[in-house]
Write a structure and sequence with these properties.
73 residues; mainly alpha; 3 helices; 0% strand
Length: 73
């Protein structure tokens, strides 16, 4: 739902802001993919599980911030 909201707000936000958000999302998604792959190789690793949870938390925080960002920012 948050991702959908970001997609809806895309046209309301400054293009530079959108570019920064998209780059941040790519980096976060890459971290999630890498964490998931590492965790698949070592499923007992609490460290890797925590890393994956932090990556998802970061993504949710960014999406929530974007959803509440004033238009024109």
């Amino acid at each position: 739902a948050l991702q959908g909201l970001l997609d809806e707000r895309r046209t309301q936000l400054d293009p530079t802001t959108v570019a920064v958000l998209e780059q941040s999302m790519r980096l976060i998604d890459q971290a999630i993919a890498e964490s998931r792959a590492a965790l698949a190789k070592d499923p007992a690793s609490q460290f890797l599980a925590a890393q994956l949870a932090r990556s998802y938390s970061t993504k949710i925080t960014l999406l929530r911030s974007t959803a509440t960002m004033p238009v024109g920012t």
